[in-house]
User: What shape does this take?
Amino acid sequence: MSEFTDYLSEVFQHFGAIRTRRMFGGYGVYRDDLMFGLVADDVLYLKVDAQSKKLFEEQGLRPFEYVKNGKPMKMSYYTAPEEIFDDPDVANVWAHHAYDAALRSKQPGKKGKQG
Assistant: This one.
């Protein structure tokens, strides 16, 4: 793991135990085996869906993008607000938004990507 991903356990101390797992050149951030965040280049992104996306956009937060076959691809993860790194209570609120979006995306009968 990296220093940054190790630090996330402290950031999310009020949210509960998390773990990180290496994937695709970055890390997935999990609680109860459900991925609610990802880390790429030491930037934390949190899961969004149609219900929570507006909260992130209202804060000016940007989606995670990568380039595939020369085209930018957006995923249903947005940058985390900087305030979460200074206040575990704020981190808890945003982690719940992301975790709830991850839960909703796992519901049976949901098809296609949201976000």
Residues 11 and 98 are 14 Å apart (CA to CA).
